[in-house]
Amino acid sequence: MSKNGTKKLFSMRTLFEWQIYHRICDLHFSIMETINSIDWDKKCQTIAQPLGYSLTLMVFLLRLLQDNILKPNYINIYRSKDIFDLKKSYTFRKYPYLMTLIQDTQTELIKSNKWYNNILGYIDKLSTLLLILLLMLNAIITWLTLFRSNCSYQFYSTDITSKTDNIIIRPLTDLSDINYDPQTNISVFKLLRLYLLNLFKDIEDLPSTVTNSDNKFYYQLNKWKPSKFLLTLFCTFSPISTISFYFTEVTLVTLFPVLFQQIIINYVIFYRYETKLVNEKTIHQSMIQEMENKIIKPKMSKEVQDAKTDVRGNTKKCFAQFFPATTVVRNQIFTSHDIDGNISIQKFDEDTNSFKKINNNILSSRNIVIP
């Protein structure tokens, strides 16, 4: 084959591999986009709860099968070769008719039990494999719920006085670090390390007592925030029930305490604690709305009128121009932090509907004449 033919074949092979690779990537992207576009929290009652109860019931049935059917037949399934063979007895070999009787009896017994023991052997291997997969799935769900459902919040202009182990004080220089990501830096090991360090400190010396007057650091709150779908799946497919099924001898009576436990967990978490969170949210919203209606709006809704007057003295003609009255006086200058942690002063431009950075040395004023 010539060099041109080899190059052409190589280019066609490369093009074919490139097309397959991009089709796989497009398929993966389409699948992930479809999964992420689904509102899983609305499918707790239709998917998560039945799925969790089905997995728990499957673990119960597998353990019930192992303890009541497979375990009593372990000797016949796996240890039939270790049973003493009467044909090897030297005494029985002296009597040929006894050897014939023993051989016929063992042959019929082996034929009648061989298929049954083989089926039980396959069922035992399949049940063990399914049980291992269910235990691994339960461990993954537990790990995702307890240790991978954290959400990070940063506070730059607030002095937090609450004493909690989930608050971390970080310098503003961390924001300029390219490799620093507050989402990926959250781990259970860091939270455990902070908790162990705080055990040896006095409660008055916790980092939350530091004041942020110099704006040299900020607070980071790592909040445990699992999704409703994942929490429902965790509660219905509880690791407590799975472990108790695995380490205890399962009978039909074992199902009743597990059902009672699931009813209690379902009632406490979904009907009590979730309702408590909704009630607290309603109370906070009503308090904010009441404060806005009684305090903020009356102070900010004073009718004012902007006036442009002539400030030149000793003139016979005075100049004055009045603008339409406004209902709210708004401060359009905002102070924030940029990515590097530096203080940035910005002003909102109503013409472009965007923020514009202004110089710190420029002082602006707005004169309002109230008649």
From TrEMBL:
Belongs to the NUR1 family. Member of a perinuclear network that controls recombination at multiple loci to maintain genome stability. Required for rDNA repeat stability. Its main location: nucleus. It is a multi-pass membrane protein. The lineage of its organism: Eukaryota, Fungi, Dikarya, Ascomycota, Saccharomycotina. One of its GO terms (biological process) is maintenance of rDNA. The chain crosses the membrane at residues 126-147, 229-247, 253-271. Signal peptide: none annotated. GO terms for cellular component: nuclear membrane. PANTHER family: NUCLEAR RIM PROTEIN 1 (PTHR28293:SF1). The keyword Membrane applies. Keywords: Membrane, Transmembrane, Transmembrane helix. It is found in: Nucleus membrane. The keyword Transmembrane helix applies. The gene is TPHA0G01980. This is Nuclear rim protein 1.
